[in-house]
Amino acid sequence: MVHAPRVLSLSRELGQEVQAGDGRVLGRLADLTVRLGGADGPHLVDRLLVRRRGSSDLLVPWSAVESFEHTGVLLREGTDLSRLTIASTMGELGADELLLERDVLDTQIVDVAGQRLARVADVVLTRTSDDRLELVGVEVGFGGVLRRLGLERLARRSGEDVVAWTDLHLTSDRGHSVQLATPRSAVHHLDAAGLAALVSRLDTESAVDVLTGVAPETAAGAVLGTHPVVGERVLRAMPAEDASEIVAAMPPEHASHWRHRLARTPRLGGRHFVRSRVWHRRHPRPTPDPRAGGSA
Amino acid sequence: MRRPGKRGLALGALLAVVGPGLLAGLSDDDPAGITTYSVLGAEHGYQLLWVLLLSTVALIMFHGLAARMGVVTGQGLIGLVRQRYGVKVGGAALAALVVANVGTTCAEFAGVAAGFELFGVSRYLSVPAAAVIVSLLVLRGSFHRVEHVLLLLSTVFLAYVISGVMAHPDWGAALHGLLVPSVPGDAQAIAIVTATVGTTLAPWGLSFIQSYAVDKKLRTEDLALERVDVITGAVLTGVIGFFVVVACAATLYRQGRTIQDAADAAIALEPLAGAAAGKLFAVGLIGAAFLAASVLPLSTAYSVSEYAGTEAALDDPYREARPFYVTFGLVTIIGAATVLIPNVPLVTILVATQVLNAVLLVPLLIAMIGIGRDRDLMGRFTITRKGLVAYSVTTAVVVLCVGALAVTSIVG
Lengths: 296, 412
Hints:
The structure holds 2 protein chains of 2 kinds.
Chain A: E1 7-9, H1 10-13, E2 17-19, E3 25-35, E4 45-51, E5 57-61, E6 65-69, E7 72-75, E8 85-86, E9 97-99, H2 100-103, E10 108-111, E11 116-127, E12 133-140, H3 142-148, H4 152-158, E13 162-164, E14 168-170, H5 173-181, H6 192-201, H7 204-212, H8 216-225, H9 228-237, H10 240-248, H11 252-263
Parallel strand pairs in A: 2-7
Antiparallel strand pairs in A: 1-11, 2-3, 3-4, 3-9, 4-5, 5-8, 6-7, 10-11, 10-14, 11-12, 12-13
Helix pairs in contact in A: 3-4, 6-7, 6-8, 7-9, 8-10
Chain B: H1 6-17, H2 20-26, H3 31-44, H4 49-73, H5 77-117, H6 123-139, H7 143-153, H8 158-166, H9 171-179, H10 187-200, H11 203-215, H12 223-255, H13 262-273, H14 275-308, H15 322-340, H16 346-372, H17 375-378, H18 385-411
């Protein structure tokens, strides 16, 4: 038997045939799920979404997988398919469960270590010693895109750019909310400067979720670390009591400045007439908090 | 400070949101658009005005959908197409969009050249100057000021309304043409109908309005006001198109004259509607060209960056946002340089671009409906069943136009 490669790319695994224990072809591999909850340990692939022609999808737990190879997936003999049939993934996924193709591949992420916005070109998985698949990170940049387009040669020239799973925040709707709800996610381990950089890159509603989800002191440091235009936009978008709690947690001179700033009626509702101040990304300011200061 | 009254607040909130729809709509009335409307009026009189009415309705619907998708997902159109349909479909859409956008930028600079030549300024002076001014204004990071200038500039479109009135049109016939659809069966008429749809509802306009709404960080509670913005922009676009057609129908069509482009129309208008009407037409042409030439390279650069996944912001240094700056530079340079090459078949390029825009529109509209129907992406803003019917019917009409064009050009 050929030994399976240790590192796998999601895009190469999707679409392969899934066979039942008796060798019957069931359908094709459409997606993999990972649960982000749990206090520690690796993020292992939990279930397989199998798309069948002319009948409902299957959501197969990893325990029913006999072998997962690049040439095909074989399920264990005696797997009861009727119990795995689902009408749609909606309502079937666990609260901390993500679909890697739907919620991660080709979506935008914020690389919180490199402080940049990027789009996922591929999801990187490794095979563990007990033959499970572990989610380790995502490949970003153009190299992965070229490879998926079949332009291997060009892809080799552009190199690989991988972001570790512990260093990223997903911006897809489900990815964002699942990561916010799981304490292990990167977003819960950022200092004020890191949060400021994240908030500057997220849309307003997601930024509000992030800041209201952390301690007011941390949120206050993050607001002071962003450009005032960004800070004001986000504070104005959140419920008044949350905003005043964050402002109260600021050092007194900043707090009075921000109270004054938020009390006045903003010109044009805080949104500007045309695309003014918009083509520009607002760079975070050096944070006044010395512990969080300094960049890598 | 005095608290503004209720009416003041409502107006303030509206002014805050206005922008994406207005600029995206108005820059659809670019020189290519004005040329198409002029030819429509000069060759078919008032008969095809209903096409403009339909285009305006389609513009309201799809610009509204694009703005909504941008606000709800926080992503631009090409980025969403890649996320929803994968790298291959996204790549194909991007490639077609870039080619069409380069052609359209070329049309904008041709408009600058033609407009200034009417006032005796050589294109070898006006086009490079326009390219440099546009690049400096946009790239030197003062786009927020540029936008005020652009919106002010767009008031030159009033020039068309005035020249339309000065041409003393037959208002009854115009109203009849607007409300009662009829199609001359020849290939030329079908081509101009398709071009009109393709120039009013342009693919780059759709991607622009969406990126714009994303970058303006509009929120879902702004959507109702954003709708007002989109409708205002689309209706103004339609009204301006209407007056251009009417001006040409009342003069050139009645005299049996044909024209090649909008500059011809400006010259031809002078003896028929007065020198002022022709001059106003030319001023409108230059303003429209500048507006669109500022927006197109930027919109293309954003689409490329969205697809590649690299960050794109004007204050990023070159090494961090290379695809963004390279795209902006190439689109501007190719667009401007093409106009300056002697004996270049400009008319062929412009017509081919418009046809490409119309053809590209079909898969793009279908992709937009697919994304709009995706509950995972749109949540509670997913297109309803009733909405789906309306969007599908509009797309079907565009498909019909493009199909008819393909058939007539193969048969003819």
